Automatic annotation (TrEMBL):
Residues 129-620 form the Serine/threonine-protein phosphatase 4 regulatory subunit 3-like central domain. This is Serine/threonine-protein phosphatase 4 regulatory subunit 3. Residues 653-805 are annotated as: Disordered. It comes from Cyprinus carpio. One of its GO terms (biological process) is DNA damage response. Pfam families: EVH1_PP4R3, PP4R3. It comes from the Eukaryota.
Length: 805
């Protein structure tokens, strides 16, 4: 039979930082003349070729701390090796830079395949000597290597186990204590070949027996009794392959040795058990592979899971087996894990989980949830595709994703541990970041449309049921925990989804319902509600803003802020930060809404400048709103005076020359045909007032200047006064120069033109003259005014020159 002590698997690290299986062979070590040093040789089982593994650099940082660098390419290994040798002052052509202890040891290590250490005869009287030899070899890597080779070549472990049985029969406690130290030391040698012997079917129970007799304990442990009587191997589905059965037994026992039998390793011993971890790891990989290849086994497993005739105990065992099976799959490499979950999907694992989640057994549902989490974390797209196909055949109540939501809502754990796990899975499923988009279909659009149509009403049901009044109808801790989870998921949707969540919030009035939670006695729930609104405001979406203003949704926020009083806590800070965001980002619609509706409640808050800053923003905004109205009036006036449409210019000039001077002297202006649709107030009044201003300039200048001191409002260096369309008395002046705000075309007779200025006009001081209309082209006006002074007796000509210029 082929010697399996040196049978190994060769792994290389790929670009994805995963280990690739390069094949199986038999390893040996020898001195290679070409490389001037020791090398590992792996003889492949398939073709018998030798492969030199020369991309590994191994060194020791401390006595019991070994490190290794494994390179993908030899060139990289040689480059780093040369740098190491350069630092140490060594010749890069050699493969060993370690200073050997003495010439005799160097000679003994020239041939690593020969035993480098002589072991005492395996006798009862020499056990103490053997224990001392093992203990003295552990600190030195070279002595550990020599001891390992000696134990392998002489079959020493089997002889030690024979002595164990003798000592146990004789109740030789001293010998049993020495054997404990010896076997523990052999574990710390960290050698796979020794583990293969120790964990074989005929040896493993004796090894566990040796580890029962710890010298530090007054009585031996009873590990073998537990493994043989208490621990029972349950075959939920009969396993016909004997090799698979043996591998499962071995893995369980070795895992038990690692977790229960061996003492907790010290800091210096942790790295000396890495091979034991690897042994268990690769055993699990083999078990998963063998079960995955057994189609008959998996078919029977899923058939019994979904069979209604299966009793609860049996189904419980089946679900636990499947859960452990999925847990083992986490040890697989990515490509093997792909094949594993694809196999489970083809076998119908998702329909089976749907059946299991509909059962009343809490433990079974918990195991099914764990299995579902493996599937979601590995491939959420597979789960999404299944639930969308399922929705075409089943009602909403029995959809898999709705079952998950219902289990989250009905979690009986006071801390809602299961609900938190399920909420994380739902977040993964609705996260657009892991959704695929192809040329033929867009998973994001399809799944989100499905989710908001079939599932969102189930998720939000507890929220809507608990927020029908101004305060939450149920305010106990567990209910608040659940509502907090729901609001957190809705907040996630606001951030990552677009029109789906927007339509849902506005149509179902979700924000108003969420803000009811600000009245909860539990601060964490009130903060969740504030975070939800803050996320919506942070989008700066006018659809949301109009929805907030239309329903006065800042009111519960302001109430919560005022009810919090002067306490400096998270609620206080969260509310202030929300208003500060509106101020800093200058969200104009919300700023006006807040000041116009809630300023009286907030004006006394002066320990921060947020609300006063909002008021200032509002006033600046109103001022900017007034100026565009003024600018639009100026534009209208300029258009009628200077910028006539080129197509109507000739007709207008002809109408002007056909107009009688007497009519013009009366202050009436001719309205061109193109502007007949506009009101007489808009067109005639400004022009007539403008001409009257020229005739009465000197007298008006005195009156305006005399009333200047009594004007109220903001005054800029250009001394502009704006009038709003609402009848607010913002100005006051002496009776002789009273200004009455009104509509832009308020009628006035020529006889009163000297006493009243045109509405929406601005009083401007420039160069010692006061004009009632401030046009940007002042130079042109000045020239016209000089012409008017020189031709006061013929005002119609002056008007004509104005309109035709």
């Amino acid at each position: 039979m082929t010697d399996t002590r040196r049978r190994v698997k060769v792994y290389t690290l790929n670009e994805d930082r995963q280990w690739d299986d390069r094949g199986t062979g038999h390893v040996s070590s020898a001195y290679v003349e070409r490389l001037k040093g020791m090398s590992l040789l792996v003889r492949a089982e398939s073709d018998g070729r030798f492969q030199n593994i020369d991309t590994l650099i191994v060194w020791s940082e401390a006595e019991n701390y070994d490190l290794a660098l494994s390179f993908q390419e030899k060139a990289g290994c040689d480059e780093i090796w040369e740098k190491i040798c350069q630092v140490q002052g060594k010749d890069p052509s050699v493969d060993i830079t370690q200073e050997l202890i003495d010439e005799s040891e160097e000679e003994r290590f020239d041939d690593m395949s020969s035993p480098g250490l002589e072991l005492p005869p395996c006798e009862l009287s020499r056990l103490e000597e053997v224990a001392e030899l093992v203990a003295s070899s552990l600190p030195s890597p070279l002595r550990r290597e020599k001891l390992s080779l000696a134990l392998e070549n002489e079959g020493y472990i089997r002889k030690l186990l024979e002595l164990f049985r003798v000592c146990e029969d004789l109740e030789n406690r001293e010998g049993l204590h020495h054997l404990y130290d010896i076997i523990k030391g052999i574990f710390l040698l960290n050698r796979t070949a020794l583990f293969e012997v120790m964990f074989s079917e005929e040896c493993i129970m004796d090894v566990i027996g040796c580890l029962e007799f710890d010298p530090s304990l007054p009585q031996p442990r009873r590990h073998r009794e537990f493994l043989t009587t208490t621990a029972r191997f349950k075959e939920v589905i009969p396993i016909s392959d004997p090799e698979l059965r043996q591998k499962i037994h071995q893995t369980y026992r070795v895992q038990y040795i690692q977790d229960m039998v061996l003492p907790t390793p010290s800091v210096f011993e942790e790295n000396m058990l890495s091979t034991l971890h690897s042994f268990i790891f690769f055993n699990k990989v083999e078990i998963v592979g063998m079960l995955q290849d057994d189609e008959k086994f998996l078919t029977e497993l899923f058939a019994q899971l979904t069979d209604e005739a299966t009793d609860d105990d049996k189904r419980h065992e089946l679900v636990n087996f499947l859960k452990e099976f999925c847990a083992f799959s986490q040890t697989l490499q990515p490509q093997n894990r792909d094949a594993f979950f694809k196999t489970l999907s083809n076998m119908g694992i998702l329909p089976a989980l749907e059946v299991i989640l509909g059962m009343d057994d809490v433990q079974v549902r918990g195991a099914a949830t764990d299995i579902f989490s493996y599937l979601v974390e590995y491939n959420p797209s597979m789960v999404r595709e299944f639930v969308m196909q399922e929705s075409q055949q089943n009602d909403d109540d029995i959809l898999l994703i709705n079952l998950i939501i219902e289990h989250m809502i009905c979690d009986t754990d006071p801390e809602l541990g299961g609900a938190v796990q399920l909420m994380g899975l739902l977040r993964t499923l609705v996260d657009p970041e892991n959704m695929l988009a192809t040329a033929n279909k867009t998973e994001k659009t399809e799944f989100l449309s499905f989710f908001y149509k079939h599932c969102m009403h189930v998720l939000s049901a507890p929220l809507l049921a608990n927020t029908t009044e101004e305060k939450p109808s149920k305010d106990d801790f567990q209910t608040c925990q659940l509502l907090a989870l729901i609001v957190e998921l809705l907040t996630f949707c606001v951030e990552h989804h677009t029109y789906h969540i927007k339509n849902y919030i506005i149509n179902k009035d979700i924000l108003r319902r969420v803000l009811v939670l600000t009245a909860s006695q539990h601060a964490f729930l009130a903060l969740c509600a504030l975070r939800f609104m803050r996320k919506i405001i942070g989008l700066k979406d006018e659809f949301y803003n109009r929805y907030i203003m239309r329903n006065f949704l800042f009111e519960p926020v302001v109430k919560a802020f005022l009810n919090n009083g002067s306490r400096y806590n998270l609620i206080n800070s969260a509310v202030i930060e929300m208003f500060e965001y509106v101020r800093v980002e200058d969200v104009k619609s919300l700023t006006a809404h807040i000041i116009e509706n809630y300023w009286k409640a907030l004006e006394d808050v002066d320990y921060v400048q947020t609300f006063k800053g909002l008021k200032l923003r509002y006033e600046q905004q109103r001022e900017r709103q007034d100026n565009p109205k003024l600018d639009s009036m100026r534009s209208i006036l300029r258009n009628h005076r200077f910028r006539r449409d080129a197509r109507t210019l000739e007709d207008e000039e002809e109408m002007w020359f056909n107009t009688d001077e007497e009519d013009l002297e009366d202050g009436e202006a001719v309205v061109p045909p193109s502007d007949k649709m506009k009101s007489d107030e808009d067109l005639m009044d400004p022009i007539s007032k403008f001409m009257e201003r020229k005739k009465l300039k000197d007298s008006e200048e005195k009156e305006v200047l005399s009333g200047k001191a009594s004007l109220s409002g903001r005054q800029s260096p250009s001394f502009k006064l704006s009038f709003s369309s609402s009848p607010k008395p913002s100005l006051s002046s002496p009776p002789t120069a009273s200004l009455h705000p009104g509509s832009p075309g308020s009628p006035s007779s020529p006889g009163t033109g000297a006493r009243s200025s045109p509405p929406t006009a601005a009083v401007t001081t420039k160069g010692g003259l006061v004009g009632l209309v401030d046009y940007p082209d002042d130079d042109e006006e000045d020239e016209d005014e000089e012409d008017a002074d020189s031709k006061e007796e013929s005002p119609p000509l002056s008007k004509k020159s104005k309109l035709s210029s």
